[in-house]
Amino acid sequence: MKILIVGASQGGLQAAHQLLHQGVDVTLITARSTLEMRRGQSQMTQLTLPSVRAVEQELELGLWSAIAPTYRTVALTTVTDDGISTGFTGDLGGEGVAVDPRIKMADWTEYFEDKGGKVVIHGATVTDLEYFTRMFDAVLVAVGSGELGQLFDADPTRPLAAEAQVVSQAYVHDWPTVPGQDLEVYSTKAGVVYVIPTLTSDGPAHSVMVAARPGGVLDLSTEPVHRPNVHALLPQRLEAVLPEVAERYRCAELVGGSAASTLVRRITPVVRTPVAALGEGFVVGMDDSVVTTEPRTGQGWAISTKGARHLVEHMTVHFDRHGGFDRAFFTDTFSALWQEEIRHTSSFSRMVNDFHTGRLSPTVLEAMARAHTDPAYADQWVQGFDNPRMLTDLLRL
User: Fold this and answer.
1) Residues in Cβ contact with 194 at an 8 Å cutoff, skipping those fewer than 6 apart
2) For residue 215, which of 14, 45, 188, 230 sits 20 to 30 Å off, Cα-Cα?
């Protein structure tokens, strides 16, 4: 089997390492060198939840276990329009981590090459991909933006029940932590705020990530400048909805004192069709090329990891039996992934969206009240972050 993976992403690199481990002839093509990855603009912080971390460790990709800060307890706080706060803290049942994607993808790419994988540093066009379909048994596209990201059409039959978000983020040192609350999540009608222990190129820090409703008070893209000063603006905007968090933010220092530690980015959640025809061949989407998740749920890398493992396992079995692939195989494989995993994440997204639009069901409201007083139930709820199927069963979503 000879496979080309386009894009050094979470799912793309995991698939590359897994295929290489199985003795497959696999080539990774990426538009940026690892030095350019490390020096690039900040990317959205992603959660490596316990189950995702277990997969990475199984693939020998937990390269930062000795230095990366971990989280196990998650504090969920809901703030109503009139400023009333309720919430609970639960245990994930295992440790998660967050690593700056610039570090993670660069290290994984170099490690892939060290293990004998082939890496080509070159931009790829649609014309290139059409040519590559004649050279490889499968071409997997793990690039969710630009020309290649437009290859895969949106699938209206599989909505994520989510809305567009504007994500603003800053890496900071000296965040005033709260004992017993490793990872903090604040839900307000204006948006969701995550405070995440994170490994950056400057060492352990915290990522303060805001997923805002467009046009609302937490949307920094409304600033009349091209590159808003995120570090200065975040405490000003947070003051209106989370004054205590804003005060703590003012105690923190921006990592590196540089705008490279911040970002403002619009995210539009969507599920796309997994196969795109190119001439007489076709290419297969994976990772963010096919599923762009709701940032308020923190499920991005979980879906990428589950998708990569699911795809590689099915490809290996199918190729051994049939010696090749057709479009129907990849379409059916993604349909199975949707049924087994992604639909539960979609239900999770629907619950989050219902909160922000004032449509939470009585069942969920009762469950939130129970979690506030029942620690074991709170643990179950929080563990649903790591396994949305468990959450959909618990809340009857």
Assistant:
1) 45, 183, 184, 185, 207, 208, 209, 210, 211, 298
2) 45
Of 124, 128, 145, 130, the residue nearest 276 (C-alpha): 130
Q: Is the pTM of this model over 0.90?
A: yes
> What is the structure's pLDDT at 82?
76
Which of 205, 209, 208, 197 lies closest to 255, judged by CA?
205
Q: Is 40 helix (H, G, I), strand (E, B) or coil?
A: coil
Q: Is 70 exposed, middle or buried (0-12, 13-18, 19+ CB in 10 A)?
A: middle
Vertex 210, ends 208 and 213: CA angle to 5°?
Answer: 175
pLDDT attached to residue 357: 77
The kind and range of the H/E element at 197 are strand 191-200
Residues in CB range of 261: below 8 A, 6 or more apart: 42, 170, 171, 172, 200, 231, 254, 255
Beta bridge partners of 139: 4
What does DSSP say about strands 165-173 and 203-212: parallel, antiparallel, or unpaired?
Answer: antiparallel
Contacts of 350 (CB under 8 A, 6+ apart): 161, 162, 397
Rounded to whole angstroms, what are the CA distances from 268 to 25, 143, 213, 297, 378? 35, 15, 11, 13, 30
* Confidence (pLDDT) at 227: 84
Any residues with CB less than 8 A from the CB of 332 and at least 6 apart, and which?
none
Residue 149 has a pLDDT of 83
Q: Which residues of the chain have pLDDT under 50?
A: none
Residue 365 phi/psi, 5-degree rounding, is -60, -40
Q: Considering only CA atoms, which of 221, 203, 226, 218 is closest in space to residue 249? A: 218
Q: Taking the C-alpha atoms of 224, 229, 235 and 241 in order, what is their torsion angle to the nearest 10 degrees?
A: 30
d(CA 365, CA 361): 6
Q: pLDDT at position 226, please?
A: 78
Bridge partners (DSSP) listed for residue 229:
none
Taking CA atoms, 247 is separated from 167, 193, 232, 233, 383, in Å, by 20, 14, 12, 13, 29
Q: Are 24 and 140 in contact (CB under 8 A)?
A: no
What stretches of 239-361 show up as alpha helix (H) in DSSP?
Answer: 243-249, 300-322, 327-337, 343-356
Q: How far is CA 382 from CA 96, 244, 284, 349, 378, in A?
A: 12, 23, 33, 15, 6
Give the position of tokens 């990855």.
37
